[in-house]
Amino acid sequence: MNPLADELLDLCGRGVAAPLADAEFNRLALEVFAYQFERNAPYCRFCEARGRTPASVSGWREIPALPTAAFRHADLTTAPDQATVTYLTSGTSAAGALRGRHLLPDTRLYDASLLPNFHAHLLSDGLPLRMLVCGPTARFFPHSSLGHMHTRVLEEFGAPGSGVFWREDGPRFGCLAAALEKAVAEAASVCLLGTAFGFVHFLDWLAEQERVFRLPPGSRMMDTGGYKGRSREVPKGELYALYGERLGIPLSHVVNEYGMTELGSQFYDSVLREAEAGQPADGAVDARRKVPPPWVRTQVVDPETLAPLAAGEVGLLRHYDLANLHSVMAVQTDDLGVWRGDGFEVLGRAAGAEPRGCSLAVEEIEPR
Amino acid sequence: MLTDYLPQGLFEEAKSSSAPGRRQHAAGERAAWLAAVAAALRQRSPDYRTLPICQIIEGLARVHDDWARPQSPRRVEAVARLHAETGYAPATLDDALVGLFGGMNAAAMTGWLEAAGIVLGSLDHDNEPVGAGTLVFGPELTVVIASGNVPVAAVPSLVRALLLKSPCLVKCSSDEQVMLPLYARSVQELAPELASALVVTGWQGGEAEIEDAALAGADALIAYGSDRALESLRGRLPVHSRFVGYGHRISFSAVGRELLTAAEAGRAAALVAQDACAFDQQGCLSPQTVYVERGGELAPTAFAEQVAAALAELDARLPRRKLDAAEATAIHQYRAEMEMRAFGEGGARVWSSPEGTRWTVALDPNPTLGPCCLNRTVVLRVVDDLAELPRWIAGQRAALQSAGLGVGPARRPALARSLGAAGVNRITRLGEAQRPESALFHDGVNALAVLARFVRVAPNG
Fold this sequence. Notes:
The structure holds two protein chains of two kinds. By secondary structure, chain A is an alpha/beta fold. Chain A has helices spanning 3-13, 22-39, 41-49, 108-122, 145-157, 173-185, 196-208, 236-247, 271-276, 362-365, and strands at 66-67, 85-88, 101-104, 130-134, 163-164, 166-167, 170-171, 190-195, 220-224, 254-258, 267-268, 296-301, 314-321, 330-340, 343-349.
């Protein structure tokens, strides 16, 4: 039916360890670009305005990257009439009340990208783990891409005893603590999944209760986001130390996930994966990086000119994600990052410009 | 690096202890130093009050005339250093300084006092026989807290304090530490008799212990900053102290259909572009929206193209300052938003500089006034009739500043009245956004009248 989608499904199915040569990535990227140019009308207009068409573009680096703000103002999909899945951005960072939207005909390619990538970065040692979710899931947050991700991972990889501890009205910390207690009693390793801001609350809650866990060896966690402005702000180094103190999860077993509603793939700290591959890392927060899966290329670009920067220079992250076939492959984020070695480090958002002078700024009138 | 400007003899030991490495001092030490400076300044108040007002006006006018004169070396130095510090184009800075100081000559300052209901003699208590009448006293200590990097903003506040014979303790903005020290130096050099009343210094904004030390002794505070910063400062000021807060503001301009003709539109577009380039819209007097009226000979789209051409031309002559990542990102994201909206809704369009974020023109069918992402982003909002404007600006009422009107003389008075009623406090012309006619009523407040204390003296009998 859709040979390009099938080819991409195969590609993801080969897993993250199978390298994809740049020539092969280029061929696929150009095909995806042509596919999107033909079907995704707003994106097509965006490219035409820049004089970039499948006829004029010969390398993936020339494909126009669409800024994330566009997703708040247009339906950026290749199948506008067949969208059955809608993911919405959280709306915490967007100006005004408009939320970005990501429309998909189905989640097959999304899942094909998600599962092997997650497995490689969190489960490569093959240890059976209870998946304990302290964040959105598909049932309670049907428009959250993170919710879909949590649910799929739990369905696919969760050992008996897995569970969800966040409902539409908020967390169930008591139940989560009981599940951790049980895991300790039964010497069953767990994988905690959730948002960093959710974990900040959970750690506060544990502190109030004066409770501390020493989770069984091999226990790990994946935190994501985005906790700035959402809760008591905790520097990452401090938060990760608290994971160790309160939960007994060492730095080497804390994996940060970076994902965006607008993309079809995610990025993870490579810390645990490297440890499994015999390159033990101490997990120091400032030495971490995220290595894109073979079907994604990430660039760091100059915030003013949008020209690619050399490794080590701080700029905006830009992703070319083949798994985003049904939307837009080339996405220009407003996340600051830096390329180091074979991966990148996320440094935060480049948003919220403060006025230099005395002009009223957009940030000052946003609802808080 | 900021240099403190302290009058001679004032608190010598504080000055010497503050020399190198001052910023590393513990907050407590800095607070004690400031409290001592504030107390010493206050003690000078009675002395300063014996200077005749005419002498004060003459002294200040000497300083201001020297700044405003052609090829003033003082201005040349300031422009060079301000350009290095803020990145604003030299021509913009020079224009603003000429406008500022040219607008504060002897006649203008006398006019300020008159407009505040202050008869000159009422400030000279020693010379007037105390009979029936009014005596006017300034605060025994005025504290000025500057902020932002628009260098001309805070100078008039110092001048007002000095005109009321009030000693003045000034905190520079942490974003721009050139202008106020240079002004203080010029006062020391050209009007040393006034310099004893002026201290210009700096501290880390928001450090409560240090700020409180400065505020504790203040009869009056004039502060610049965000609403949040002003709220915090006002809350910590002794309740009987006078307060003038200049918050972040939003301005706009409006182009009437009578200017949208083949003959007039080009000039109007050039003036609109000029307003966007003066301080790159960072100043609160700069328009963040330009209302364009339908029904002219030229369609709003054609006018937008002319504005884009004018911005491109100005970019070559007056390059914009370099943006940080957040500022540049905001513009790229905004352009994408407008491109998407152009696809989905009628009337939306965007024109962008071929390289980087140097200038942007957007045509936005939504007429509601709101902040834009600044730095030469001209947002044109189309309306059927400029008479509708009060409705579209109502949401920003509390923050409204200037309106630049590009309309024929027949419509101007009625528009000015209705915009004034809607909360605008300055009506000006296109291209004049950053050339205030007078600093007197900035933000709609006669600050001299707020600061002055009027003492009525009844006749003996």
